[in-house]
């Protein structure tokens, strides 16, 4: 039989592995930027800046990096630093079709299994894409986002003259939900993702928070792909091995967050996910954009090149350097 000292050591070890941060320590929010189309490498630093400035949160932003350590969303297989998730209170995931090595993807999967909350944006419905013969392909390419976040990638209604005009009209549904306090209708530049209806469905545990209507659509069959679909949902559950709270939005075009309502919805989604809904006033939170945040338009190949991680993180709080002010290369 184990002696008393052994039992005490085991109990202390278990407590240390599952206990929340010490009382009074600000939450640690880890934001993972890794998409080559929607400028997550610009949007997530903006969000992190608001969380630090207005709420005192600790933040850590992880980027796709090239071989020189520069931010490169077109590199699909390298997001170093994910081991920090072992200490995180919240993971914010905005990746697209990544094929990360085992040492980088495992902390993401372990985090999701830990029961801690997740906030997901747009392309997290297709966060991973491993080759068909890869041992992770079946589980992660489709099953993981549907099981963990509520839906996988299905289709969208098409993009037209990207960034020139809004493509989705957003209307709040659950106005009494903490995440939607003070959020009014707004137009988004994201083309509408199909996630529900026509034979597809979000899980029963999902609360539809906001609805989007495609202003234009490339789909002719409105019964199969309705032109109105949820753009934001929240999930609460007690299932073992799944996040206890999920806040997800299929919005994510960089121009979406020029809207104060879109920023408010996202920031309040973060606070709700952390169980801090009592901090959200009835009129909603102030969510002023950082002074130096000037989003680049979406589009493949359009990311700003040659930036260090420090520059990418600091930029929303400062004005762009002269060498970066022109935007696209």
Topology:
Elements: H1 4-18, E1 28-34, H2 40-55, E2 58-63, E3 90-95, H3 102-113, E4 118-121, H4 137-149, E5 155-156, E6 168-172, E7 186-188, E8 193-194, E9 206-214, E10 228-236, E11 245-249, H5 260-273, H6 309-314
Parallel strand pairs: 1-2, 1-3, 3-4, 4-11
Antiparallel strand pairs: 5-8, 6-7, 6-9, 9-10, 10-11
Describe the overall structure.
By secondary structure, the chain is an alpha/beta fold. The chain has a domain at 25-154 and 229-324: 3-Layer(aba) Sandwich (Rossmann fold), CATH 3.40.50. The chain is 23% helix and 18% strand. It is built from 6 helices and 11 strands. It has helices spanning 4-18, 40-55, 102-113, 137-149, 260-273, 309-314, and strands at residues 28-34, 58-63, 90-95, 118-121, 155-156, 168-172, 186-188, 193-194, 206-214, 228-236, 245-249. The strands form 2 sheets. A 9-stranded mixed beta sheet has the order 2-1-3-4-11-10-9-6-7, with helices on one face. It has a two-stranded antiparallel sheet with strand order 5-8. The longest helix is centred in the first third of the chain and has 16 residues, at 40-55. The radius of gyration is 20 Å and the shape is globular.
